[in-house]
Structure formats: structure tokens, C-alpha cells
Design brief:
Length: 734
């Protein structure tokens, strides 16, 4: 390695990096927008800046400007709500239910991210939606966040790579993506009030890169401001986050919409970046009714005109407190998005709906995202002919999940449950016996009768599979019955609910050939049974084809290749936010004291052994690494390695590249993911893979100098099969 050559090429690269022009910006369009704005009255302009129903904002008919129709959400187009919140009857709104965010991220396959986005975009366009409210990309800071299942990862690099494909996939179908929730919305229960405090370095290195990639690489059309406060100011109208960083530094030219009801102040919204105020009439109704009752005034009914960016904004303009140019700029951003997505000329191509190819994408994401966590003595895959009787246990084996979790609910055209999937793929002669084992109910107790039934079924069978873990809630039709993996709530702890530990231990005793399949949005405490369990799979919420994907993996028709996009701690206290006692915070304030040490950055640096490490995931084959080299290249450093499928089954490996700075004066994590490549190899096949590490891979955010710097010194570049399974490393000096 020649450090001086390397340094030169890195410096050249740094100089060459420039902001990419937004595709939203085009001179001819800007002129058309100017002409339209000149023709608008103040009332017309303001009507564009706020909702006029639960999911729409107004158009201006006489000028040919249509309404904007938005829809959740990240893993499927939400059922029709009409203009209020009442679910529409008799409409065609049962579509493709994709695996949730964790599953997509666990595939570590950016091309699949594109296909995923394309399904959403196509179905959104078919259903007449202009903006799809996703992806959700907040950093998974604690295992307890109720919305982790929608999000992607604890790692900003993995998020950035996956989000770009997703957004391009959506927007190539002619509809806008809306990346959310900007920014630092990392807990749910008190999301509307919590004030998040963190260092500038943590903000820049962890919490913002996904959004930056969405803006600068994927050129996302819309960004959603989050509910929480950040350093004392509401994130949806935040001078620093929106004006200075998003629209200033990053050059974002699209529109910033609020989360539903996240605007709190007219002047701040006007001045600090909110372009479109969305929300629920119900919330406002509640507020206005209670306010008017308190003041003894007449009851108000026209809720939308009372939005912060409606009548109160008009008053500020008329009182000359705010100049009309502020409004014009917001209108311009909204119109830009309309032009970019052919809303005005009506030339958008119509997408398609719940097609077989969409369902195939759902299947492939699940197949590549499900993670094989443990497989002792090769229990998996089960042999179709060898297993004549199978006990399938657990309420999660039969539970449908599409409508759970809150705003990301989807009405699925169909949903293959794990039990159905196993019936589809088991041998014809296999006798499958199902036992519920536990029940999802507010009453947390283990049910001894159900456990006894499960034990009896397992004892008689050649093998048993328990589908267990988290759930979206007790009863999805009622919001207040949300639990665990759901919007508006956080998990109380990492313990398995409903007496599942007891069930698992009893079944393992009855039949040691028991496979544990965990469903849900992330880790739980497995200490009660993990040592005795020979095989464990993380199944996430794997979408409408999830049952088939799980069965194909269990029977070996698909070789698992998913890798964890987040660390699974042994116990909650090991997780950094909890170690510092900073989740959910105290008296409305949460200090991110773990700073940049989130997820594996913490576990590796502070030598805390997790249950399963970031990037971990087994295969039914083995991969051998050799010939690793690191060379300078025009755009940075290239890592090369030979990867051989050294086993007997075709399979895929995710080669993960981590960088560590040695002996730095700056506090650095033990390793940071800076590149990865998923490679598909036939049994016996070998390929040389190349991963480019650009100059950013070696930088940290310097708070004093307010910029990204490389501290000279030596760096170790590691390639591995997971963050705790490094197969080779090289040291370079910069
Ligand atoms: C959620 C958003 C969602 C919006 C509209 C909010 O409660 O936080 O993610 O897009 O509702 O349903």
C-alpha cells in the first residue's frame, strides 16, 4: 500500500464532490410556476399550504392545479379513508403488502430496495395517490421503539444505501416519495412532546445521513417533519434542521410537509421551513372544541381553515408581520413537486395493482430478508421426506399482520401465514398438527392448557416449529389496543410477552428438534431458552408472501441470506440508550448520552457481547474469503476479495466492509460500516468482489470546524461476514 498515492486520490475526490442539482429544478418549469403564482389570490395560495381533508390538500381548479392526494405508507398503500377517517367500503383497496422496513434492510440488497419502491409507486399511482408517505428511516436507537418495524437499521450507511433504491423506485413510477420522520423521532410514546438533545456529531454522523442520501442521491420530492422537538424547537418548523441544513446545505428544493398535527406555531411554520401542514380534523376538532369550551366562545366547525397555515397565516400576512414572498416560496415548492410528477399536465402513467410480479417482489424481499440466527448440528433445513409429522405451535403461526401497527396498515389482497406456508411446502405425507401455545391478549399469563397441548403435539412429532415473538397489538381495529410493534407506543421491556418463555422451554424439552421462529420488529430477551434452542430464525413481519418465504427457508428451497440490520442485545440494559438511562428520557427531555455509540458502534467499542451481532446471519452453505487487497483508486480506495461458496448449496453472501481508525485523538467507534456487497454464488463458485470506499469513509464530523474531516493516521479496513465475523483486514495510512 502506498499511503501517499492513496492520500492524493482521496483529496482529489474530496474536491470533486459537489452537490448534485435537484431534478426538481428546471428553468422552464420555474417560469411556468412564476406565471401561475402571479395569477393566484392570497387565499388561493394559502389554500395550497394546508390539508383540506384527512389525506389531501386543496388544488385551484381555475388554474388547473389539482388536489394533492397522499397515502401511507412505507410497506403498502393504505386502505382508503375517504376525506374523513372512516374506512371506505366496497372499493378496490386490497393490494400488495410488502415485508416491513426491517426485512427489506435485512436483505442488504439495494436492487431489491428499488423493486420494493417500484411496487409501492406503481400501486400508489394506480390508486390515484400523488405522494406515498414513506420510507420511514429513523435510526433504531433502542429495541423498544414501537415503530422500529417500519424503520430500517441502526446504521446510517446501510440506511443510506437502501433508501436511495426505494425512493428512486417510487419516483420512477411518477409519484413522490416522502421520506420521514425528519428528524430524531426515535421513540413513540411521547413523540409529540419529547425534546431530543444530542451532540452535533451524533446528529451529523448517525441521524442525518439517511435523509441526506434521500435528498442528494435519490432526489426525493418530499420530506416529512417529525412530531418531536429537537434542541427545544419542534422539528417540523426548525430553523436549523430545515432552513439551514435540509434546504440550505443540502439544497433540497422539494416540499416539507408536517406529520399529522405536528405544526404548533404559525410564525415558526412560515419562517422555519414547513411548506404543507397536514393533520387530522379529529385532533383539531378536539383542540378547538376544548379551547372554545374553555373560553366560552361559540363552537367552531370549520377546522381546516383554523390550521396554523390557514387563517392564522393570512392574518400574519395582512398584518404585515410576514411578507407574502414567504408564502410564494412554499407555493413554488409544492408546484415543483406537482410538475415533477405530472400532476398538472395529467401525463402520469397509470401503475398497476396487486399484480403477480408485485407479489413476487414481496416474496423475494422476504426470502432475502429473513435471517437464520442459529442452526446447531444442521437441524435446518428440514427434510421434506424425512419429517413425517410436524408440530406447528404459536399464535404467530396463524396471525395476519397487514392491518397492524398504526398508520402503516395495509389491506392485503391475501396474506400467507406461516402455517399456510408450511402446508404449501411440506411433503404431501407430512402430518401437520397445530397448537396455539399462547394467546395474544392483555392478560399476560401463560396458559397452562395451551402449553400442555403444544407439548403433547411436539412430543409426538418428528420436529416442532414455534412461531412466537412480538405482535402489532391485541386488536388492530382499535387504536388503543396497539401494543409492542405499533405507532404511538413503545415496548415496556424486551421480555417475551404472553408466557412464551415458559412455552418454548416446555416444547424444547418435549422435542429437542424444535425450531424457534421469532416474528416482529426486533430483538427480545432470549436468555430463558437460547442455549437449549438448536435453531432460531428471525422472521420479522415478512409481508403477504411471508409464510411461503419462511417455509421455503425452513425446507431449504431457499438458502437464507438475510443479515441483521440491527444488534440483538442479550438484555435491555446492555443497549446503550438504556445503559445511560436515556430512554424515553426524563421530564420530557431525552439526552442521547451514548452519542455516536449507537448499536454495534457501542457493543464493539465497549466490548459488550450481544446475543446476535449487527450483520449476523447464517446460510446453509459456507463462504471462504481469500486474496484480500486494498488499493488506491480514482475515487478513493478499492477493497478486493475473493469469495468462494465452499459448501454444497447455491447461496448468497453479504460481504461487509468496516473501517476503524487506529490511535485517533478523536473518539471513534471500534468499527463503522462503510461498504457492502451481496454476491450470489453457485455451490463451488468463486468471484472477486470489489467495494469502493470513497473519501467519506474515513471522515468524522468535527464540531469545532463544523465540517467533515479526515484525521491523519492509520486505518484498518476489515471485510467480514458480520460485524463479529471479520475474515480479513488490511491497514493503510492516510
Ligand atoms: C404518522 C406518519 C403518517 C401520518 C399519516 C402519523 O401519525 O406518524 O408516519 O404518515 O400519521 O397517517
Amino acid at each position: 500500500m502506498k499511503p501517499n498515492i492513496l492520500l492524493c486520490s482521496l483529496l482529489m475526490l474530496a474536491g470533486a464532490v459537489k452537490l448534485q442539482a435537484q431534478s426538481l429544478f428546471n428553468k422552464t418549469t420555474e417560469n411556468k410556476i412564476t406565471t401561475l403564482i402571479r395569477q393566484m389570490t392570497l387565499d388561493e395560495k394559502l389554500s395550497l399550504l394546508h390539508a383540506n381533508s384527512s389525506f389531501t390538500s386543496a388544488g385551484i381548479k381555475r388554474l388547473g392545479i389539482p388536489e394533492i392526494v397522499t397515502s401511507d405508507g412505507p410497506h403498502g398503500v393504505r386502505p382508503e379513508h375517504g376525506r374523513d377517517w372512516v374506512l371506505d367500503e366496497g372499493v378496490e383497496d386490497a393490494g400488495t403488502y410488502l415485508p416491513t422496513g426491517n426485512t427489506l434492510a435485512a436483505s442488504w440488497n439495494p436492487q431489491l430496495g428499488y423493486r420494493y419502491g417500484a411496487v409501492l409507486g406503481s400501486e400508489a399511482s394506480y390508486r390515484g395517490k400523488d405522494i406515498i408517505l414513506g420510507p420511514g428511516i429513523n435510526i433504531i436507537r433502542s429495541p423498544l421503539n414501537g415503530r422500529n418495524f417500519e424503520y430500517l437499521s441502526e446504521d446510517p450507511f446501510l440506511i443510506s444505501k437502501m433508501v436511495v433504491g426505494y425512493i428512486k423506485g417510487v419516483q420512477d413510477q411518477g409519484v413522490s416519495a416522502c421520506v420521514k420522520h425528519y428528524a430524531a423521532n426515535n421513540e413513540e410514546a411521547d413523540r409529540g412532546t419529547v425534546n431530543v438533545m444530542m451532540s452535533e456529531r451524533a446528529l451529523r454522523e448517525l441521524y442525518l445521513p439517511g435523509f441526506k442520501a434521500a435528498v442528494q442521491e435519490a432526489r426525493v420530492n418530499a420530506v416529512m417533519g417529525s412530531y418531536n422537538k429537537f434542541r427545544g424547537q419542534y422539528a417540523t418548523h426548525h430553523k436549523y434542521l430545515i432552513n439551514d441544513i435540509l434546504k440550505g446545505e443540502w439544497g433540497f428544493r422539494g416540499l416539507v410537509m408536517s406529520d399529522w398535527g405536528s405544526v404548533h406555531d404559525t410564525k415558526e411554520a412560515l419562517l422555519y421551513g414547513t411548506d404543507l401542514e397536514m393533520g387530522t380534523d379529529l385532533m383539531l376538532m378536539y383542540n378547538t372544541v376544548s379551547q372554545t369550551a374553555a373560553s366560552g366562545g361559540p363552537a367552531k366547525t370549520d377546522y381546516y381553515s383554523q390550521f396554523f397555515m390557514a387563517d392564522p397565516a393570512k392574518k400574519m400576512i395582512l398584518d404585515k408581520e410576514i411578507g407574502v414572498a414567504v408564502i410564494d416560496e412554499k407555493v413554488r415548492r409544492i408546484l415543483r413537486v406537482m410538475f415533477a410528477t405530472h400532476m398538472i399536465d395529467g401525463k402520469r402513467k397509470k401503475g398497476s395493482y396487486h399484480t403477480e410480479s408485485h407479489q413476487q417482489t414481496a416474496l423475494q424481499v422476504a426470502e432475502e430478508g429473513i435471517v437464520l440466527l442459529k442452526n446447531q448440528s444442521g437441524l435446518l433445513p428440514l427434510s421434506v421426506s424425512g419429517i413425517r409429522s410436524l408440530a406447528v405451535i404459536g399464535e404467530n403461526a396463524t396471525r395476519e399482520n397487514a392491518m397492524g401497527g398504526g398508520s402503516s396498515q395495509v389491506k392485503a389482497k391475501y396474506e400467507i401465514t406461516p402455517l399456510q406456508g408450511l402446508k404449501n411446502y411440506a411433503g404431501k405425507e407430512t402430518e401437520i398438527r397445530y397448537a396455539r401455545g399462547y394467546k395474544i391478549a392483555k392478560d399476560q399469563q401463560a396458559d397452562q392448557t395451551m402449553i400442555a397441548e403444544a407439548v403433547a403435539a411436539a412430543a409426538k412429532a418428528d420436529a416442532a416449529i414455534i412461531f412466537c415473538g412480538w405482535t402489532h397489538g391485541y386488536d388492530y381495529s382499535k387504536w388503543d389496543n396497539n401494543a409492542y410493534d405499533a405507532e404511538g407506543v413503545d415496548k415496556p421491556d424486551m421480555d417475551m410477552p404472553f408466557g412464551q418463555n415458559e412455552l418454548i422451554r416446555a416444547v424444547l424439552k418435549a422435542n429437542p428438534k424444535t425450531v424457534i421462529v421469532l416474528m416482529g420488529g426486533g430483538p427480545l430477551d432470549m436468555s430463558a431458552w437460547i442455549d437449549e434452542a438448536p435453531a432460531v430464525i428471525e422472521g420479522w413481519y415478512p409481508g403477504m408472501e411471508g409464510g411461503n418465504a419462511l417455509a421455503k427457508i425452513i425446507y431449504g428451497q431457499v438458502n437464507p441470506s438475510g443479515k441483521l440490520p440491527l444488534t440483538f442485545p442479550k438484555k435491555l440494559e446492555d443497549s446503550p440508550a438504556h445503559k445511560f438511562g436515556e430512554f424515553p428520557g426524563l421530564n420530557g427531555v431525552v439526552h442521547y448520552k451514548e452519542d455516536i455509540f449507537v448499536g454495534y458502534r457501542y457493543f464493539d467499542t465497549y466490548k459488550v457481547k450481544p446475543q446476535f451481532a449487527f450483520g449476523h446471519g447464517l446460510s446453509y452453505t459456507t463462504f471462504a474469503y481469500s486474496g484480500m487487497s486494498v488499493q488506491p483508486a480514482a475515487k478513493g480506495v478499492i477493497l478486493k476479495a475473493n469469495v468462494k461458496n465452499s459448501g454444497t448449496r447455491d447461496g448468497a453472501e453479504v460481504v461487509q466492509v468496516y473501517v476503524k481508525q487506529n490511535q485517533s485523538k478523536i473518539r471513534k467507534a471500534e468499527k463503522e460500516l462503510k461498504g457492502f456487497k451481496k454476491v450470489f454464488l453457485k455451490a463451488g463458485e468463486e468471484q472477486q468482489i470489489e467495494v469502493l470506499l470513497d473519501s467519506d469513509a474515513f471522515k468524522y464530523y468535527d464540531e469545532g470546524k463544523k465540517g467533515w474531516l479526515t484525521a491523519p493516521g492509520s486505518f484498518t479496513i476489515m471485510a467480514g461476514s458480520s460485524s463479529d465475523d471479520i475474515r480479513g483486514e488490511r491497514t493503510i495510512s492516510l
